[in-house]
Design a protein that fits this description.
The complex is a heterodimer. In chain A, the strands form 4 sheets. Chain A has a 6-stranded mixed beta sheet, sandwiched between helices. Chain A is of the alpha/beta class. Chain B has one domain: TIM Barrel, CATH 3.20.20. Chain B is globular, with a radius of gyration of 17 Å. The chains are: A alpha/beta, B alpha/beta.
Chain lengths: 397, 265
């Protein structure tokens, strides 16, 4: 039943919807029409499936984390989205939207990027499919994710540094939307997360839900039962929605999302679901970080990919109906998570993923050795090596 | 009794005149400058004023207005200040229409009903919410009606027949037609289809049509005067104020700017 959401206007309960200037309404309608045609068109789904297997590298493995399991006392499986081409789950939705762009007959995409993973995924999909890509990136993120800026440029994309506002992801989104409003007849906005106006949260979820579908098959082979817990990090929420969605109707599987508590919930953070309030940002009604005057506040996280003062409306809804639980961990715990997964399993996770890893020790009291947990490794940590090296003092004299 | 806005367009029609409506964010450039700016613009011949409620993430605005919003927020601008300003202008005998322009979040957070009550009491005439399309404004529209507030809807040159029809059904006061696909901000040319588009709307309704976004100079007004009932002048007006060094110079520049647009025939 709950898989039927959103409703026709894109609402997940009280959340979601379309809060955009009139100029964008026709584009959203067109996108929704093309999307519905595409997912029911065998040619489209076959082409997408082919690219996902032959180019992205799907299905990604489900790895049993033997050493971590021993250390923490419950069975831990890792869904290896870090092994996708370009190093994160973002490519799943970027390739699929790229195919939609071709179907719409548009020739140009704009995209926002925080950590740079979605920008790289977009640039990659556009290189492959012959589409012009313009990527907006907040000036602060631009500086802390230089390698990804270089990757995007190498892939032929134009990267634009955004100096307005807080110079992070939310401002990159504002600029991408401004570009889109201006060039809407030729341009598609390739949103990277389950955020924005309807139909984006549904489209991105739909294309990311392959993660959870694969996990369901894989865990049945390994454990002959559904997992007790599925856990993922949440910024905008695309990797979490991707792995959660197939499990929403599995009542015995607990869904846990981990947000960035940054320097702490009483200081600077990005824990929108934990402490945000209902508001309207970037075309959607959801939980947002805002002050009492309705002005959006700056988010903060060590991980650029979680540094967003909003969250996908479906997460806000899953929280409100108590189908998913959301907690947050600090920058420090995330760094501990990076070390934990790297040292025990030989897998260096992205700082985003490391938030979910860092939360695992909290579960030792409620889980036992029969318990099965699946953690979504949303991306690999190569892009974060500068900041990890600095924080863990690898080169201090 | 006709509302101030209805009366404005009745009068303008009688005299074959055209509405010039400057836009200015409240509490900008200084916290207390709004009253003086509004009064100067009105006495120079502006027919109504659009008062912008500053927002941190104004994605339909260009760089000029975004920067002004940021500065106004630094000045401590809040939704409540809008009502203080409108109330003061009414006390000082300002009789022309005052229209609020906002993004939805500050009003949602403030409380829609509380907003409407204070809007009615202070003497605001209308509200434009740039990111609240008809689909999402059912509750809002009911409250606006209850408190005699015109809710102004926007149409864009790429709005299709179905959208035009549904917006016209809800329209009150006037229709705000966006001149181009894009954000606010000064530009040279309008969408080539603007005239055709406005004419299409006119075949369906008698409600006055105001054109906004990108209007900055005499030539623009000359063109728009032929096809519509008025124009909103936003970023160009904001720039004029930004380029003033002191209050006297500002008053002079505002008067000159408005005169120049009003006197187009």
């Amino acid at each position: 039943m709950r898989n039927l959401f959103p409703d026709n206007e894109g609402h997940f309960g009280e959340f979601g919807g379309k809060f955009v200037p009139e100029t964008l309404m026709p584009a959203l309608d067109e996108l929704e029409d093309i999307f519905r045609l595409a997912i029911n068109d065998n040619n489209f789904t076959e082409e997408l499936d082919h690219l996902l297997t032959s180019y992205v590298g799907r299905p990604t493995p489900l790895t049993f984390a033997k050493n971590l399991t021993k250390k923490l006392g419950f069975k831990i499986y890792l869904k290896r989205e870090d092994l996708c081409h370009t190093g994160a789950h973002k490519i799943n939705a970027a390739i699929a939207q790229g195919l939609l762009v071709k179907k719409m007959g548009k020739s140009r995409v704009v995209a926002e990027t925080g950590a740079g993973q979605h920008g790289v995924a977009t640039a990659t999909a556009c290189a492959l499919l012959g589409i012009d890509a313009v990527i907006y990136m907040g000036a602060k993120d631009y500086d802390r994710q230089k390698i990804n800026v270089a990757r995007m440029r190498l892939l032929g994309a134009t990267v634009i540094k955004v100096d307005s506002g807080s110079q992070t992801l939310k401002d990159a989104i504002n600029e991408a939307i401004r570009d889109w409003v201006t060039n809407v007849s030729t341009t598609h906005y390739l949103i990277g997360s389950v955020v924005g106006p309807h139909p984006y949260p549904e489209i991105v979820r739909s294309f990311q839900s392959i993660i959870g579908k694969e996990v369901k098959d894989q865990i049945m082979i390994e454990e002959k039962k559904m997992p007790d817990i599925v856990i993922a990090c949440v910024g905008g929420g695309s990797n979490a929605m991707g792995i959660f969605h197939s499990f929403i109707d599995e009542e015995n599987t607990k869904l846990i999302g981990i947000e960035a508590a940054g320097e702490g919930l009483n200081k600077k953070h990005a824990a929108t679901l934990s402490v945000g309030t209902t508001g309207i940002l970037h075309g959607m009604k959801s939980l947002v970080l805002q002050n009492s005057d309705g002005q959006i506040q700056e988010a903060h996280s060590i991980s650029a990919g979680l540094d967003y003062p909003g969250v996908g409306p479906e997460h806000a809804w899953l929280k409100s109906i108590k189908r998913a639980e959301y907690y947050s961990v600090t920058n420090e715990v995330a760094l501990m998570g990076v070390k934990l997964l790297s040292e025990s399993e030989g897998i260096i996770p992205a700082l985003e993923t490391a938030h979910a890893v860092g939360y695992l020790p909290e579960l030792t009291n409620v889980l036992n050795e029969q318990s099965v947990l699946v953690l979504n490794v949303s991306g690999r940590g190569d892009k974060d090596m500068d900041i990890i090296s600095e924080k863990l003092n690898f080169f201090s004299t | 009794m006709n509302s101030r806005i209805d009366q404005l367009f009745i009068n303008l029609k009688k005299d074959k005149q055209f509405a010039v409506i400057p836009f200015i964010p409240i509490n900008w450039p200084g916290t207390d400058d709004t009253i003086s700016i509004v009064e100067t613009a009105l006495s120079a011949g502006a027919d109504a004023i659009e008062l912008g409620i500053p927002f941190s993430d104004p994605l339909a605005d260009g760089a000029t207005n975004q920067l002004a919003y940021q500065e106004a927020l630094k000045n401590g601008s809040k939704v409540d200040n809008l009502f203080k300003i409108v109330d003061k202008l009414r006390t000082r005998n300002v009789k022309k229409p005052l229209i609020a322009f906002s993004y939805f979040n500050p009003i949602y957070r403030y409380g829609i009903e509380k907003f409407m009550i204070n809007a009615e009491v202070s003497g605001l005439d209308a509200i434009i919410i740039v990111d609240l399309p008809p689909e999402e404004s059912i509750d809002f529209s009911q409250l606006a009606k209850k408190h005699k507030m015109h809710q102004i809807f926007l149409l864009a040159p790429n709005s299709n027949e179905k959208r035009i029809e549904s917006v016209i059904k809800l329209a009150s006061g006037f229709l705000y037609c966006v001149s181009v696909a894009g954000t606010t901000g000064v530009r040279d040319n309008f969408s080539t289809g603007l005239e055709t588009f406005v004419n299409k709307i006119k075949t369906k309704t008698d409600i006055p049509i105001i054109i906004g976004f990108g209007i900055s100079k005499k030539e623009h007004i000359k063109f728009i005067k032929k096809i519509a009932d008025g124009a909103v002048v936003g970023s160009a007006f904001v720039e004029t104020i930004r380029n003033s060094n002191n209050e006297n110079q500002r008053d002079m520049k505002i008067s000159e700017f408005i005169h120049n647009l009003v006197e187009v025939d």
